[in-house]
């Protein structure tokens, strides 16, 4: 230190300011070199400063300038840079997007993303498109649920190209068929029970409270699917199962006489034989079989199931579900597929149960380790009901699957799942985008995500009245209020969203993006004649099966 003091004393006082500036400059440019681009520019300036000092003071450089000026300045700059270094951006799981407040980052999308916004809030053109663009760029596989009859699919076609496969139940295509009861997806009773429960709950028969007829209907449907899976796999498709239940006469002449002397008919004899011919099937069918003694009860169970299944017994669905050209193992390395499943709002009552079953089947295949990185994007997600939806985001992140859950408002989800269960779903999604809210409860829900801040509040006391009213005094107090108030969310414009991630929150407006769209190729749409022919063939095949196989 004495050497440093002697060195400074030996320098002209006017040069002291220059030395201080050099200290600051070396510190600053070492910091900039570590933290910001273009690093080569900052490193070049730093090199010029150090080289200039060596050139001007060669006698003092090694003994004085290097150890007492350059080294400490570099050390301070590097330490400041390291302590202020932001978290490194993961090129695969972190997503950058541009806003009116600069570049923002969605950290670790495996933890799930929640996107809320009323109609016209810009969900599709802003956060959803940013996510889809990243998934395409980084070669993700995945599933897109497109509720609006192809709106999202038209965006996905240019992004994903040939790896995009499209499934639609309201339009049948030659190469777009999937068998949800294929042996690739179901292996035992557990798998079948889950698929049947998803189908039944989306058909509108599932309730939170146990219902005798509904439980028996589910047991019967599970048993029939299991029987076809175990013993007759050529008929193990949803259309064949529906045809078996809705278009077959199970009655059989017992060979005896009833109390009126007429031939006795057992209305469900063939069905009973079918179910009891395999012990595993008989166990699943036990609730139904035990009720066969009561013909009225049996008829009620079958009627409950038939009334549900008739909604999805139409030619387009029979075509799309009786083939197996699309593999639902979307994230398998040998498959590498992005699947877009299209709904149609005007017919969603009939399409949603099938779509929910397909998505359930596909998500189960995704829950396998060491597969490709993938995503599940559900637009208008509350329009379908998936089993254990609250657990899906937490479970799927372990398998490298990012879940993006989109909804219009809190009401939409509450109607489908109930308030508490829907809150559980939203709580498992770590990043939130909140757009325009039309519903007051939804706006208050958004507000609850923001921290409280202290705000000055003035209260004015007055006395007298009318023209004699005078101000007596003004009191200023502090009050804790939410950083963003509920009413502000009702005034947001398209593209404006509250962005919450990693404990940080901000109100941002997405930069307008140029979005390319491409219409769906309908050249392979199946003709009406072929649809009807396939429909009738399935009915004939099942009738022939019953006539010749059940004896």
From TrEMBL:
One Pfam match: T4SS-DNA_transf
Source organism, top-level taxon: Bacteria
ATP-binding listed as a keyword: no
InterPro entries xrefs: P-loop_NTPase (IPR027417), T4SS-coupling_protein (IPR051539), TraG/VirD4 (IPR003688)
Keywords assigned by UniProt, alphabetized: Cell membrane, Membrane, Transmembrane, Transmembrane helix
Compartment list: Cell membrane
Identification of the protein by name: Type IV secretion system coupling TraD/TrwB family protein
Protein topology in the membrane: Multi-pass membrane protein
Recorded GO CC terms: plasma membrane
Chain segments annotated as transmembrane: 15-34, 41-60
Family that this chain belongs to: Belongs to the VirD4/TraG family.
Signal peptide: none
Protein's organism: Mariniflexile fucanivorans
């Amino acid at each position: 230190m004495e050497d440093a003091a002697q060195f400074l004393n030996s320098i002209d006082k006017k040069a002291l300011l220059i030395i201080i500036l050099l200290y600051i400059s070396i510190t600053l440019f070492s910091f900039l070199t570590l933290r910001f681009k273009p690093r080569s520019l900052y490193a070049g300036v730093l090199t010029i400063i150090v080289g200039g000092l060596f050139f001007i003071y060669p006698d003092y450089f090694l003994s004085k300038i290097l150890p007492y000026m350059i080294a400490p300045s570099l050390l301070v700059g590097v330490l400041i840079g390291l302590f202020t270094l932001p978290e490194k951006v993961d090129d695969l799981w972190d997503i950058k997007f541009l806003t009116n407040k600069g570049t923002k980052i969605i950290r670790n999308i495996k933890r799930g993303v929640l996107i809320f916004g009323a109609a016209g809030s810009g969900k599709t053109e802003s956060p959803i498109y940013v996510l889809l663009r990243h998934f395409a760029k980084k070669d993700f596989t995945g599933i897109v649920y497109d509720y609006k009859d192809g709106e999202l699919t038209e965006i996905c076609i240019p992004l994903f190209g040939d790896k995009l496969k499209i499934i639609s139940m309201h339009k049948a295509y030659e190469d777009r068929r999937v068998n949800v009861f294929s042996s690739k997806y179901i292996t035992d009773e557990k798998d079948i029970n889950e698929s049947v429960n998803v189908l039944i709950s989306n058909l509108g028969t599932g309730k939170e409270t146990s219902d005798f007829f509904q439980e028996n209907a589910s047991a019967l449907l599970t048993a029939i699917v299991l029987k076809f899976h175990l013993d007759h796999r050529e008929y193990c498709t949803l259309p064949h199962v529906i045809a078996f239940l809705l278009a077959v006469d199970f009655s059989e002449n017992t060979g005896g006489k009833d109390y009126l002397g007429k031939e006795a008919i057992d209305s469900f004899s063939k069905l009973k034989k079918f179910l009891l011919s395999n012990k595993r099937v008989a166990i699943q069918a036990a609730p139904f079989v035990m009720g066969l003694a009561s013909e009225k009860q049996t008829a009620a169970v079958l009627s409950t199931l038939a009334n549900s299944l008739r909604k999805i017994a139409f030619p387009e669905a029979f075509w799309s579900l009786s083939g197996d050209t699309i593999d639902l193992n979307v994230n398998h390395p040998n498959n590498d597929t992005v699947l877009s499943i299209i709904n149609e709002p005007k017919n969603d009552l009939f399409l949603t149960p099938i779509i929910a079953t397909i998505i359930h089947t596909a998500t189960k295949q995704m829950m396998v380790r060491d597969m490709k990185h993938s995503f599940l994007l559900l637009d208008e997600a509350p329009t379908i009901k998936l089993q254990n939806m609250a657990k899906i985001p937490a479970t799927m992140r372990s398998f490298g699957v990012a879940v993006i859950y989109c909804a219009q408002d809190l009401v939409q989800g509450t109607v489908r799942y109930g308030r508490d269960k829907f809150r559980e779903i939203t709580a498992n999604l770590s990043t939130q985008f909140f757009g325009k809210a039309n519903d007051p409860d939804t706006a208050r829900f958004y507000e609850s995500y923001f921290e409280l801040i202290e705000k000055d509040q003035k209260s004015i006391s007055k006395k007298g009245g009318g023209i004699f009213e005078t101000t007596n005094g003004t009191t200023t107090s502090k009050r804790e209020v939410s950083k963003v108030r509920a009413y502000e969310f009702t005034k947001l414009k398209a593209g404006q969203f509250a962005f919450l991630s990693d404990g940080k929150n901000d109100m941002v407006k997405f930069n307008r993006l140029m979005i390319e769209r491409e219409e769906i190729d309908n050249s392979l749409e199946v003709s009406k004649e072929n649809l009807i022919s396939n429909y009738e063939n399935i009915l004939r095949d099942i009738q022939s099966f019953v006539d010749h196989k059940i004896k």
